[in-house]
Amino acid sequence: MDFWFFLIQVLNGVQYGLLLFLVASGLTLIFGIMGIINLAHGAFYMLGAYLAYWLARTTGSLVAAVLLSLPISAAIGYVIEALLVRTLYRRDHLDQVLLTYGLILIFNEATRMAWGADVHGVPVPEALNWSIKLTDTLSYPVYRLMLSGVCAVLAIGMYLVIARTRFGMWVRAGASNRDMVAALGIDVKLLFGLVFAIGAALAGLAGAISTPITSVAPGMGDSVLILCFVVVVIGGVGSIKGAFLGAMLIGLADTFGKVFVPDFASFTVYGVMAAVLLWKPRGLFS
Amino acid sequence: MTGGLPKRLTLILLVLLAALALFPVWGPLAFAAKYAFLLQKLTGIMILAILAMSLDLLVGIAGLVSLGHAAFFGLGGYMLAILSPQYEAANLWVVLPATMAAVAAVSAVVGFLAIRTAGIYFIMVTLAFGQMGYYFFNDSKLAGGSDGAYIYVKPVVEAFGTTLVNLDSKQSFFFVVLGALVAVYLLLRVVLASPFGRVLAAIGVNEGRVRGLGFDPMAYKLVAFTIAGALAGLAGFLAASQYGFVSPAMLGWHQSGHVLVMVILGGMGTLFGPILGAFILELAHFGLEAVTEHWLLPMGVLVIAIVLALPKGVAGLLLQWCGKKGEGGQ
């Protein structure tokens, strides 16, 4: 196999994995800390993409659109947590599944009503719309590199926040023992609200920055949601480190699956997951 | 016949069943031109109700939340498509047992692997197997790939050279499905009342204690998974017979999630709850769709309202009304 071709696949796989990590990290924290199986997480991804599409058209700048979409996604996440999710903490997991399933229906339909059922696209910003030439025939688009860069910076930032700050300490403590955190006098309500809002913002950001390389359409969050659940359980529920490794594994498996076994590309991701779970029934880190 | 249900509830359910069974009598008077369409709709809902009941055995009784149950539903449909001769009717007495046996075999293998995990991991492993099944039929050339496959001639029941039941007739198909619905309900009631069912329900409540009592939970879970898979295969067989068409979407996670919502909405672990869930969800879909093209929005609100207002689903509310608290649920 040609080295440059191989390199491009690795870059694509890593970029896809990093993007999945942004969505999956919120999902794993929400489950690990709050015990909520949030099916609506994919809807935040879709919402971010639609906000970016809409704001980019109004402001004329994708960067401004992405930055503006962040507080909106976070606010919507916070409100949903405060109004609906909060009532279900003491209830069965399946009730939460049902509630967030209802939210998916509402989000999908609301976006369809607001922006139509058509597939939309967002152009790559002018300044980033060029490619790095690798060989005579192969080149790699700069936007994808930048995408990986942004995701990587965020991943490192998230690691630092969780490992080094007081808020991160609460989060880690919450993931290992929720009741103890409450007993120690930490405002659990606020912590849960913040985690949910941050998760929503991260998923929205992933959706927003991926608009130039994917199409914006109703229901686009569903397939991402399923892949992120795959990532979360491979890594072990509640583990950020696990989510990162899982995301990389799935990103690379999906990319290389499409290259080597195009007929069974979609098979590879689920095959990897089944194999990991049969080997370690509770994920890699848990 | 309805096990430990309160008398009043049994009465309500029997009245509902009678109203359903007599639909071919009162339907044409009430709906006139729309009757044929509604008959088909109700038949479809009953098929989904069978699927929901089979999932309830796993989710509501054994505590195994499967998000890949539609795979067995779809497999049942595909088995009919594959086993049916192209230009003549298949014999129901041959293809139905063959389909259910094949689906049971596949679910036994999947179940053997899946029950090693628990909780959210079980949800995801079943999802993974379900999606693998989806892509297997979507990507392979075995039965039409992503285009799906047609069953040109519906199966028939023949005896001594004369056709007794022809599934091509909408009306007789309605009664066949109704019969299957009642039969599956009664079968599952018998299963649940048996020692096997008691142990299975105990596993759903506290697996550790069941193991402590000297039972092997794995064996019970595996048998339950196989029974549920075979019954889902039956539902898939009926669905394929109804429309004469199968497609990979029958196996996908959307379908699995949809059925799971029916089970939770209706009331887990009650068997009749998932049937009600199937009817409520599908009729709400049908009614809302007729009013607005944005029917998903009120549908989402309805689902959320039921979760917030009825912790144990519709069946929980009915059980409370009829004076028996605490039955069913998890």
Give a verbal description of the structure.
The complex is a heterodimer of chains A (286) and B (330). By secondary structure, chain A is mostly helical. Helices cover 73% and strands 2% of the residues of chain A. The longest helix of chain A has 32 residues, at 3-34. Chain A has eleven helices and two strands. In chain A, α1 (3-34) crosses α6 (166-176), α2 packs across α9 (220-235) and α10 runs antiparallel to α11. Chain B has a single domain (7-321), classed as Orthogonal Bundle (ABC transporter involved in vitamin B12 uptake, BtuC). Chain B has 14 helices and four strands. Chain B has helices at 7-21, 23-31, 35-61, 70-83, 92-114, 120-139, 170-193, 195-205, 207-212, 217-243, 253-266, 272-291, 296-309, 313-321, and strands at residues 149-150, 156-159, 162-166, 245-246. A two-stranded antiparallel sheet of chain B has the order 1-4. A two-stranded antiparallel ribbon of chain B has the order 2-3. In chain B, α4 (70-83) packs across α10 (217-243) and α12 packs across α14. The longest helix of chain B is centred in the N-terminal third of the chain and has 27 residues, at 35-61. Chain B is globular, with a radius of gyration of 20 Å. The interface between A and B is large, with 43 and 43 residues.
